[in-house]
C-alpha cells in the first residue's frame, strides 16, 4: 500500500466516524439526512480510492449506482422534510392569522357549533316522499312499457 493511499483512507475513516456521530446525535431530521448523504459520499470516495490503488476499473458501475442513489435519496428526503415542516405563509404586513392567541385559534380544536337560524326565518317545507308507483305491465306480464326496448306491433 502506498503512503498516499494510507493517508487518504485514514482521512476517510476519520470523516466517516465524524459523520456517523452526526447521524447518531441529530438533533433534527435534516441533520440526519445530510449525514446519510455525507456517509454515502465517504463510502464512494473510499471505494474509489481502493479502486485507484488496485488499478481496477470494475468498481466504476458500483460507484455510479451509489452516487445516483445518494443523489435521489437526498432530493427525496429534502422534499419530504420541506413538505412536512412547511410553515403556513405569512400574511401581508406581518399580520398574525385571525384568531391567533385566542381560545379556539389556529392549531386548537374547535367544538362543532349547530347552525343558528335568524329570527323570523322560515324553513322551506320539503315535499313529502311518495311511495314508488308500480310500472305498467306489458302484454306478456312483465313490468315496463313498450318504450323499454321492444317495438309495438302496429
Distance between the termini: 105 Å
Helix content: 40-55%
Task: Tell me, rounded to a whole number, the average pLDDT.
Answer: 76
> Which outline best applies?
elongated
H/E element order: HHH
- Strand content range: under 5%
Quaternary organisation: single chain
Structural class: mainly alpha
Largest sheet: none
Number of strands: 0
Radius of gyration: 36 Å
Q: Helical region count?
A: 3
Distinctive features:
154 residues, mainly alpha, 3 helices, elongated
Write up this protein.
- This protein has 154 residues and is an all-alpha fold.
- The protein has three helices and no strands.
- The longest helix is centred in the N-terminal third of the chain and has 26 residues, at 29-54.
- It is elongated.
Short précis:
With 154 residues, the protein is mostly helical.
Topology at a glance:
Elements: H1 3-25, H2 29-54, H3 60-84
Amino acid at each position: 500500500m502506498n503512503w498516499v493511499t494510507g493517508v487518504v483512507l485514514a482521512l476517510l475513516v476519520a470523516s466517516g466516524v465524524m459523520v456517523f456521530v452526526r447521524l447518531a446525535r441529530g438533533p433534527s431530521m435534516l441533520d440526519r439526512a445530510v449525514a446519510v448523504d455525507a456517509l454515502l459520499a465517504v463510502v464512494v470516495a473510499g471505494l474509489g480510492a481502493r479502486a485507484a490503488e488496485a488499478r481496477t476499473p470494475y468498481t466504476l458501475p458500483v460507484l455510479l449506482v451509489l452516487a445516483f442513489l445518494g443523489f435521489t435519496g437526498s432530493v427525496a428526503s429534502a422534499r419530504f422534510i420541506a413538505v412536512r415542516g412547511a410553515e403556513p405563509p405569512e400574511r401581508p404586513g406581518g399580520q398574525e392569522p385571525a384568531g391567533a392567541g385566542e381560545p379556539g385559534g389556529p392549531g386548537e380544536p374547535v367544538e362543532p357549533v349547530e347552525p343558528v337560524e335568524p329570527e323570523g326565518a322560515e324553513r322551506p317545507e320539503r315535499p313529502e316522499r311518495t311511495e314508488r308507483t308500480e310500472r305498467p305491465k306489458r302484454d306478456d306480464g312483465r313490468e315496463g312499457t313498450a318504450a323499454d326496448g321492444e317495438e309495438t306491433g302496429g
